[in-house]
Design goal:
Helix content: 40-55%
Distance between the termini: 5 Å
CATH superfamily of one domain: Multidrug efflux transporter AcrB transmembrane domain
Number of strands: 31
CATH architecture of one domain: Up-down Bundle
CATH topology of one domain: Multidrug efflux transporter AcrB transmembrane fold
Number of helices: 36
Shape: elongated
Strand content: 15-25%
Radius of gyration: 37 Å
Length: 1036
């Protein structure tokens, strides 16, 4: 007994199963989180090693390279990137996606520990962390101090706001920016310490020795054990001032206050924050990996509202960036599209079937399938994100297809006067194998998509599995609930009965009869002129090439999220104060345009004090009459005009929040030395300047960072008994200073920094006068070393153990797909020195990886479709009849995308993959009916296809129209996130239109051509084809 028979025989059981699915679905929906994208994991480990006072070249040579040597041999490394900046080395280890990040992080930690002896003793403790894209900022606030200084406001944020918000479930950390932290300054007077034959290094070591607690063990006192420790930690500034650092000639004690000015102050700022032109303190709330963005943002807002009531007068917060807002608006847009698309699909059924009872029975499949799918999503730990909601919106037309086809076939039996129960049983049985095959072809297309390799595979896993689950649920409903309802609530056609609604139905029936008559004539003409049809189909396919060449090709279409990033780099050596001063004017000029809402400025990000980054937020898309591209151009124009000579770059926020910001075009030029790379990179830059459509061209290399190079005369130093290391440490202690422990006051730990006062380290002469204490007495640094001015890079970037210079560029008016061939042609003319190479990175690299993954998924989909069709038709040949028509869907998709002026991007490619399943769906219905007529009724192939075409015309048109109208809201949407969704829907609509029209003609022609070829070979070789039996119905 098959599934449909059980459902018809036991209606209460069928209803209870359906209700159970709905209840589980509702429970799953209530527990689903809401996010922008699926949780995508990148196995990346970061190693950060502070090396205070060291120039980038020293950091590279003494820290970065030894770390590279230690880490590079680990298994599973995909890429190794390093950045050597002033005072810090950063190593980014990107592992392959199948690597266990926990194990990889442990192995990196072990390698760093093993190589510690090779690193300078002056480095600070290495910081090893996993870079988790899922742990991204969800909301950014500014804090207004109500008249307090920035330092006081920042302290309030760190002491009050940060601890409170970090207690919220799902919050990983709160990062406070802006405002300096406390620091005790010990500013030494060079003249006084020289008179006492002291040195900054000696005073630093003395202060460290005085500022510590040391455990001394324990002793027994009766039945108790008493711990013993020496308490020497410094707790007040006054205590620091009173530290004895030397003994004068007269035997009196020299205290620190006698040779230094000791004050409780603030650390030197290397980064500043501004909001709309005003100095500010901001804080980012970072969620834990895997946590729901919307839920975390809501919890943070609730907690902040509670603690804000306790803030001192004038202290208040303001939201700058709220990721949950965009996510909510995006989800709302898709939900509206799903509801409207579902209503349109139901309307199509009513128009075609002209029967309210049949429409209701078929339409029940839609909410049942969608709601039940929510339970599958919950069980698989999915979220309501752009990909899963997009899957459901695309599936709207599909979910009703199976029920429509089954109901339409049942209706034909009812029209012959068969009783409802028999009609439901026989009608479902007759069409069941075709419906099963059509659904499995959809699954066959999307399961490979769900398991694509690379980042794109992780991104589309939830999409592919959600749409597969939805259509499988709809198949179950079509085989159970639909026939059961048909058997209970349908009526057999009674000959001569009067239809009260015939006056309304008659115009539609005339239209349908006219369409069927027109199709019969067209089908007959096509079968009589097979060569003409073949040439027409070939020309249609041939048109794909020329039209595609006129289209763009992107990784993803640029989204209008109402924000973008503008960066400006001033001349090398520009001080932080100067950068802050000159970048204020363009910031205020931007804000004069009321289409810009907020400008959040970060001056000196990553310690590069000559750079400013503006995160610019616009008014909502619905409140302006121009797109984000126009506003980008306006901001870029202001920056170029008001900052002449500055390097200006405009980029979008990362596609996945928390990932690194990348330009559309990134070219890595690699080699051994910057002397070789710098001119080569500029040759590449020159080659790129001649290509139309490239803007914001920038070589990410600044060789002009001024520096003083102290060269030690080793012979003189040796005679003075001073090793080079001691000279270097003395110089650093004097200029950069060093930390002599902490001053602990309650919960606060305030660093104590010792160095020469500003007036004693203001220029080169001051450095040369620096006194070094040696075994032969005090010696001036100028007597042991020479000082020369030079220039060096502000950042030394390496990848896979080679130095590289990266060239960034944006696109304007042209797509990446158009530009890449021209870039390759231009670069081919550049003469490359031995050992040098170039590589594409950024969105070009991502686009190439996506195209490769999509191509592999498409190939697997085609193989699986053939396996399913061959199994259904019990033939190795007939599946080819259908599969030869697969490219017909691409014609309409390409034309539609071209007319919509949309690039071929990730979304459009998914739409095209979906079409592979849809075009086979229609062809299966048509071909299966023809084969049944041949096998069961003994009709010749020509007669069978002539009858099968019109017989299957209505369900094919009905399902195609339902798909088109179901996709229409998504295709025409202009709301949040529509730039990603619309191309997918446009491709589907165009492909369904072309494949429906062409397959109704081409499939019969190909089928008849194959049958004629089989008959010809049978005659030539004297073979008599064995009549094939009709395929069995499933679940019998």
């Amino acid at each position: 007994m098959n599934l449909s028979a059980i459902a018809i025989k036991r209606p209460v059981f069928t209803v209870m199963v359906t209700v159970a699915l709905m209840v589980l679905g509702i429970m799953g929906y209530k527990n689903l989180g809401t996010d922008l994208f699926p949780d995508v994991s990148f196995p990346v480990v970061s190693v950060t090693v502070p090396y205070p006072g060291a120039a980038p070249g020293e950091v590279e040579q003494l820290v970065t390279k030894p770390l590279e040597d230690a880490i590079v041999s680990l298994n599973g490394i995909d890429r190794l990137k390093t950045y050597s900046r002033e005072g810090v080395s950063q190593v980014i280890v990107l592992f392959k996606l199948d690597v266990d990040i926990q194990k990889a992080s442990t192995e990196v930690r072990e390698r760093v520990a093993q190589s510690r002896y090779k690193l300078p003793t002056e480095i600070k403790e290495p910081i090893i962390s996993r870079l988790d894209v899922g742990a991204a900022p969800v909301i950014t606030y500014t804090l207004e101090g109500g008249g307090r200084s920035l330092a006081e406001t920042a302290k309030f944020a760190r002491d009050v706001v940060k601890p409170a918000l970090e207690q919220v479930d799902g919050v990983a950390s709160v990062n406070v920016q802006g405002g300096a932290e406390r620091e005790v300054h010990v500013d030494l007077d060079m003249a006084r310490i020289d008179a006492l034959h002291l040195s900054p290094l000696a005073i630093l070591q003395q202060l460290k020795a005085e500022n510590l607690n040391v455990p001394a063990g324990h002793f027994d006192e009766g039945t108790k054990e008493i711990s013993v420790r020496t308490v020497g930690e410094l707790r007040t500034v006054e205590a620091i001032r009173e530290i004895i650092v030397a003994t004068a000639r007269d035997g009196s004690s020299v205290r620190l206050r006698d040779v230094a000015n000791v004050e409780d102050g603030y650390q030197e700022l290397r980064t500043r924050i501004r909001t709309n032109g005003q100095p500010a303190v901001s804080f980012d709330v970072v969620k834990q990996s895997g946590q729901n963005t919307v839920a975390v943002a809501d919890a943070v807002k609730t907690k902040l509202a509670t603690i804000e009531a306790t803030f001192p007068a004038g202290v208040k917060t303001a939201v700058i960036v709220d990721q949950s807002k965009f996510i909510r608006e995006n989800a709302h847009e898709v939900e509206v599209a799903i509801l409207f698309g579902g209503a349109m699909a139901i309307l199509v059924i009513l128009v075609f079937m002209l029967d309210l009872r049949s429409t209701i029975i078929s339409a029940v499949a839609l909410p049942t399938s969608v709601v039940s799918t929510f339970f599958v999503m919950y069980a698989l730990n999915f979220t309501l994100n752009m990909m899963t909601l997009l899957a459901l919106s695309l599936a709207i037309g599909l979910l009703i297809d199976d029920a429509v086809v089954v109901r339409e076939n049942i209706s034909k039996h009812l029209e012959r006067g068969v009783d409802p129960k028999t009609a439901a049983l026989e009608g479902t049985k007759e069409i069941s194998l075709s419906v099963l095959a059509t659904t499995l072809t959809i699954v066959a297309v999307f399961v490979p998509v769900a398991f694509m390799s690379g980042i794109v595979g992780q991104f589309f896993r939830q999409f592919g599995l959600t749409i597969s689950a939805a259509v499988l649920v709809s198949l179950f409903v079509a085989f159970t609930l639909d026939p059961m309802l048909s058997s209970r609530f349908s009526k057999a056609h009674v000959h001569g009965a009067v239809d009260r609604f015939m006056a309304i139905k008659r115009p539609f029936l005339w239209v349908f009869e006219g369409i069927e008559s027109l199709y019969r004539g067209l089908l007959g003409f096509a079968l009589r002129n097979k060569i003409l049809v073949g040439v027409g189909a070939f020309l249609a396919l041939f048109s794909i090439g020329p039209i595609s060449s006129l289209m763009g090709n992107e990784f993803v279409n640029a989204e209008d999220r109402g924000q973008f990033v503008l960066e400006a780099e001033l001349g090398a050596g520009t001080k932080l104060d100067e950068t802050a001063r000159v970048t204020l004017a363009p910031e205020l000029k931007i804000l004069e345009d009321k289409r810009f809402r907020t400008v959040l400025s970060t001056i000196g990000k990553n310690g590069e004090v000559n750079k400013v980054q503006w995160r610019i937020l616009t008014v909502p898309k619905s409140e302006r009459d121009v797109g984000i591209a126009v506003l980008k151009d306006r901001a870029r124009e202001i920056a170029h005009t008001m900052l002449p000579g500055a390097k200006v770059t405009v980029t979008d926020p990362p596609f996945v929040e928390g990932a690194a910001t990348e330009a559309p075009i990134m070219v890595q030029v690699r080699g051994a030395t910057y002397d070789e790379l710098a001119p080569l990179a500029h040759e590449f830059e020159t080659a790129m300047k001649g290509i139309p459509g490239i803007t914001d061209l920038q070589v990410k290399y600044s060789p002009g960072q001024p520096e003083l190079r102290v060269g030690v005369d080793r012979d003189k130093a040796a005679r003075a008994g001073v090793p080079v290391a001691q000279l270097a440490m003395a110089l650093r202690a004097s200029v950069e200073g060093d930390e002599a422990g902490k001053m602990r006051q309650g919960k606060d730990e305030v660093p104590i920094r010792v160095r020469l006062r500003q007036t004693d380290r203001a220029n080169v002469d001051d450095v040369l006068r620096l006194t070094i204490q040696t075994p032969v007495g005090p010696v001036a640094l100028g007597d042991l070393a020479s000082v020369e001015r030079g220039e060096g890079p502000s950042v030394i970037e390496r990848e896979d153990r080679e130095r590289q210079i990266v060239i960034w560029a944006s696109t304007k008016g042209r797509s990446l797909g158009e530009l890449v061939p021209e870039l390759n042609a231009a670069f081919a003319k550049v003469k490359m020195p031995p050992g040098a190479s170039f590589h594409f990175d950024g969105q070009i690299r991502q686009m190439n990886e996506t195209n490769s993954s999509m191509g592999a998924a498409m190939g697997l989909g085609i193989i699986f479709i053939y396996l399913i069709l061959a199994s259904q038709f019990e033939s190795f040949i007939h599946p080819l009849t259908i599969m030869l028509t697969l490219p017909l869907a691409f014609v309409g998709a390409i034309v539609a995308l071209f007319l919509a002026k949309t690039s071929m991007a990730m979304g459009a490619m998914i739409g095209i993959i979906l079409l592979m399943g849809l075009v086979t769906k229609n062809a299966i219905l048509l071909l299966d009916r023809a084969l049944v007529r041949v096998r069961e009724l003994g009709e010749p192939p020509l007669q069978a296809i002539l009858e099968a075409g019109p017989e299957r015309l209505r369900p094919i048109l009905m399902t195609s129209a339902a798909m088109i109208l179901g996709m229409l809201p998504t295709a025409t949407s202009n709301g949040e996130g529509s730039e990603f969704r619309s191309p997918m829907a446009i491709a589907v609509i165009g492909g369904v239109i072309s494949s429906t029209i062409l397959s109704l003609v081409v499939v019969p022609v190909v089928y008849l051509a194959i049958e004629n070829a089989k008959a010809f070979f049978a005659r030539v070789f004297g073979l008599t084809p064995k009549p094939a039996e009709a395929p069995p119905s499933p679940a019998e």
